[in-house]
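stage 2 :: seqdesign
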């Protein structure tokens, strides 16, 4: 049976799902299609032409290679295809975005046929995805006296690939569609439980919001053919939780514009809005596609004569509506004036200055941020090759320097890694900066999309600028089902070939390591001044500064070793008082959120970097705080650690990296060994006093400061999704933090979950210690609710076995993971036993394992999203409450939330995660450690 016949069978299967033929990325199938096109009498010739022209993926896919080669044959006259003229062949090449297509165009442009060379050069002048091999060819031809090469360089030096693009419309008419009331998580736009389909854009698009919503959006488009649909989070923030490129892709698929007539289901330029704007990391993803993100500010706090917010009976500010954006409202965006107007255009509703910065306008004009990044590099290269002064065609980067003002920790990191800065003065928050990226992480449910992005931008190898790059297998670790078996090995092979260390070995030599990506990145970050980009919102390291990013930004970082963003503002968090013996550090995390809201009223963390002066906590424990900052809607976090603690964390990182090497995970490029060398260099710098641990300047300026009083933390706290709050916008946020006494020991718990990235080795040891204590007191332990325990890494399990803790866990477990026989189906029912699950994301991800519908789950996880860990029943909403490890364990044993006294008895003598604020630095000290 031929590949083409298989493809036809797949098409019939997709028809039953209401889907079109899947875009082609396979070169062997494309070869069969080309053979059928060449055969004038072939029964499949007409369909093959359609597939070749309109359904073959561009970039560096093997299909693109075959397509480019065939188009070259047509252009050179080696093959005649009546339906594809030479002009049309050049047009098709122009839409293929680099890689094989650029190679073909250069072959022709630098060839002997002058007419074809000129035509190829005209197409090349519109391309930006050129790599070293391409630019080296042009430069060599120019130096050899080739006139076409000189013409190309002169065009690139003027950035005609950008300047000749049409300007964006001055006025954009939009019709509103309210996706939901309150914060909209990216789980609504691209559910985690549908992660397996993200790379199949048409199929994945069917999971956005609901089928009803999709029908309503389509109806709006038909009713208002001249308007663009604007997706809105009413009384909330759009895109909280994660960057999720698949979410933006889905919004673009339903509301955006087609990027190319020859590439199916790739749309761009969506328009999204929220009463409280767009989540920062999601806004970055919107920029990747050249979209528009709008802060509507259509609801404001009602205030009294003194300007004080008026509160309702629940103590929440009363909101009043400035203007309506109910579904079906026609509004007008003026991109020149940067304002939102009513339908008539005679009433200004809100300023859109932040939506249309010079840089964002460039993204919109170019169809996305990638084209700008590559365009700037191409223009710089051409100017240097010609030996002329660079006259940038792009908006100058904003460079802000304030005389006499010191630098925050994040400002220091950005200044250290900045690229192409004009001023020799240090830059402050608000400056637009290109920065080197030191560590890049790709995770497995977004990795297939990162693959597509790398292929689309014609990248073939990780940038030499990147110190460490890792591809995880944690998000699909729970269930090795047919979807995982089909996708994961393909992903691992691609990424390993690209130059990444991979969690699973494509060659099957080393044991599959499904360790949680954030934990691995935390270990391979070996410099407190590093910049980390990861394909997950919880890319929040306890060393350096890390940013969760969409799959495309991850691809860009891998390909170029760079990222572009403004230097964020910072909020300083310090601590005072003493932590009570019976409290766990997780309660400090909850208290930070609660006390911040008490001190400031609004969430001052949103969109900013949390600079946390945590000093005395090792990297594993500090990660509990930094990981949580994603749920605080912060852009990132920076840990201020003292010298001694940082050295200890770096030594631990070295040992973990060595374990990876010992397990056979080292890449042939020597990446892991080089990370150990970087760590050694950093440790030497700290010990010598040459470069102490990162600290801010004393006169640094912060947007706000939060002081967490440890004395106020007297009982464990729970982050509650508050699913029945009458104000819908207050549900599923992380702002409702309650002490366990609130629940009066009456809150039934149906399932407990200790895992995965929010816990460290100490947490799993706490589980073991509690089992020993209760066994000693009661003779045995009985669970009145299931308890799922998922260690974040295999290292932790190995160490627990060596230290004797795994044995007690095994004693009470009714299930223990077996890598030799992994689960092939997801668990849907739980017994009242302990489950020891494979390292990975497990319940937190929601794409494989799931609690029973309507359950109340108490977890150490981070996610409160509706339907993420537990779905709703018609008669009862599922709840995912978040607490510390000891609270979760005790609640699973009791089947309910405990009293404070029950909790104190259960944890007596147990080594909980402790924290003491770092001592104040004496004047003149070189570092926090003295």
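stage 2 :: out
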């Amino acid at each position: 049976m031929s590949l083409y016949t298989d493809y036809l069978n797949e098409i019939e299967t997709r028809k039953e799902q209401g889907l079109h033929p899947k875009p082609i990325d396979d070169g062997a199938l494309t070869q069969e299609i080309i053979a059928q096109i060449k055969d004038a009498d072939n029964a499949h010739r007409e369909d093959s032409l359609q597939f070749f022209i309109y359904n073959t993926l561009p970039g560096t896919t093997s299909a693109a290679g075959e397509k480019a080669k065939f188009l070259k044959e047509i252009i050179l006259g080696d093959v005649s295809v009546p339906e594809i003229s030479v002009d049309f062949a050049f047009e098709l090449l122009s839409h293929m975005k680099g890689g094989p297509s650029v190679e073909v165009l250069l072959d022709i442009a630098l060839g002997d046929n002058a007419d074809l060379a000129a035509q190829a050069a005209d197409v090349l002048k519109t391309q930006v995805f050129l790599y070293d091999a391409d630019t080296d060819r042009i430069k060599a031809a120019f130096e050899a006296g080739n006139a076409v090469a000189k013409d190309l360089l002169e065009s690139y030096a003027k950035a005609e690939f950008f300047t000749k693009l049409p300007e964006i419309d001055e006025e954009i008419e939009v019709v509103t569609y309210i996706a939901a009331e309150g914060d909209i998580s990216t789980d609504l736009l691209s559910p985690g439980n549908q992660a397996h389909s993200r790379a199949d854009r048409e199929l994945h698009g069917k999971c956005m919001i609901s089928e009803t919503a999709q029908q309503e959006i389509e109806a709006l488009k038909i009713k208002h053919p001249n308007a663009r649909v604007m997706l809105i989070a009413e009384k909330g923030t759009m895109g909280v939780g994660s960057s999720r490129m698949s979410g933006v892709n889905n919004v673009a698929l339903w509301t955006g514009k087609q990027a190319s007539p020859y590439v199916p289901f790739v749309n761009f330029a969506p328009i999204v809005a929220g009463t409280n704007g767009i989540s920062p990391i999601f806004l970055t993803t919107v920029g990747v596609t050249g979209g528009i993100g709008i802060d509507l500010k259509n609801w404001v706090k009602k205030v009294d004569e003194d300007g004080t917010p008026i509160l309702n009976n629940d103590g929440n500010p009363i909101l009043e509506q400035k203007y309506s954006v109910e579904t079906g409202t026609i509004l007008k965006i003026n991109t020149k004036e940067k304002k939102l107007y009513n339908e008539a255009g005679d009433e200004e509703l809100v300023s859109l200055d932040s939506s249309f910065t010079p840089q964002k306008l460039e993204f919109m004009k170019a169809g996305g941020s990638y084209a700008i990044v590559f365009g700037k590099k191409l223009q710089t290269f051409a100017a240097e090759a010609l030996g002329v002064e660079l006259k940038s065609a792009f908006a100058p980067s904003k460079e802000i320097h304030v005389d006499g003002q010191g630098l925050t920790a994040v400002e220091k990191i950005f200044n250290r890694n900045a690229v192409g800065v004009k001023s020799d003065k240090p830059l402050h928050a608000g400056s637009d900066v290109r920065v080197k990226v030191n560590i890049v992480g790709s995770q497995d449910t977004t990795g297939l999309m990162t693959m597509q992005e790398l292929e689309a931008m014609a990248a073939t190898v990780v940038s030499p600028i990147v110190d460490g790059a890792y591809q995880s297998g944690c998000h699909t670790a729970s269930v090795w089902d047919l979807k995982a078996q089909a996708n994961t090995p393909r992903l691992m092979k691609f990424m390993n070939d690209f130059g990444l260390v991979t969690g699973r070995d494509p060659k099957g030599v080393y044991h599959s390591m499904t360790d949680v990506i954030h934990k691995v990145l935390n270990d391979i970050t070996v410099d407190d001044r590093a910049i980390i980009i990861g394909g997950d919102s919880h890319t929040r390291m306890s060393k350096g500064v890390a940013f969760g990013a969409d799959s495309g930004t991850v691809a860009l970082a891998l390909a170029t070793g760079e990222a572009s963003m403004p230097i964020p503002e910072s909020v300083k968090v310090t601590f005072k008082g003493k932590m009570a013996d019976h409290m766990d550090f997780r309660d400090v995390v909850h208290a930070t959120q609660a006390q911040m809201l008490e001190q400031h009223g609004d969430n001052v963390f949103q969109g900013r970097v949390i600079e946390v002066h945590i000093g005395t906590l090792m990297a594993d424990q500090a990660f509990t705080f930094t990981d949580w900052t994603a749920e605080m809607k912060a852009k990132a976090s920076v840990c201020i650690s003292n010298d001694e603690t940082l050295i200890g964390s770096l030594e631990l990182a070295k040992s973990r990296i060595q374990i990876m090497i010992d397990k056979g995970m080292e890449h042939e490029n020597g990446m892991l060994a080089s990370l150990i060398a970087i760590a050694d260099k950093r440790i030497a710098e700290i010990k010598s006093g040459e470069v102490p641990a990162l600290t801010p300047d004393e006169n640094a300026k912060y947007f706000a400061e939060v002081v967490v009083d440890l004395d106020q933390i007297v009982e464990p706290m729970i982050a509650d999704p508050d699913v029945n709050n009458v104000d819908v916008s207050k549900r599923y946020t992380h702002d409702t933090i309650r002490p366990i006494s609130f629940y009066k020991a009456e809150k039934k718990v149906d399932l407990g979950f200790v895992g995965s990235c929010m816990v460290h080795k100490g947490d799993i040891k706490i589980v073991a210690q509690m089992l020993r204590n209760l066994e000693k007191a009661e003779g045995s332990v009985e669970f009145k609710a299931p308890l799922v325990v998922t260690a974040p890494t295999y290292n932790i399990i190995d160490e627990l076995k060596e230290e004797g803790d795994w044995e007690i866990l095994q004693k009470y477990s009714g299930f223990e993971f077996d890598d030799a026989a992994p689960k092939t189906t997801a668990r849907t029912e739980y017994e009242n036993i302990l489950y020891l699950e494979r390292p990975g994301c497990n319940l937190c991800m929601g794409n494989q394992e799931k609690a029973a519908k309507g359950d109340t789950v108490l977890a150490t996880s981070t996610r409160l999203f509706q339907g993420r860990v537990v779905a709703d029943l018609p008669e009862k909403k599922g709840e995912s409450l978040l607490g510390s490890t000891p609270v979760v364990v005790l609640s699973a044993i009791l089947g309910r939330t405990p009293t404070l006294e029950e909790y104190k008895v259960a944890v007596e003598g147990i080594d909980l995660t402790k924290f003491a604020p770092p001592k104040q630095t004496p004047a003149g000290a070189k570092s926090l450690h003295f």
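stage 3 :: structure notes
- The chain is about 40% helix and 15% strand.
- The chain has five domains: 3-129, 171-356, 408-419+432-567, 570-711, 716-907.
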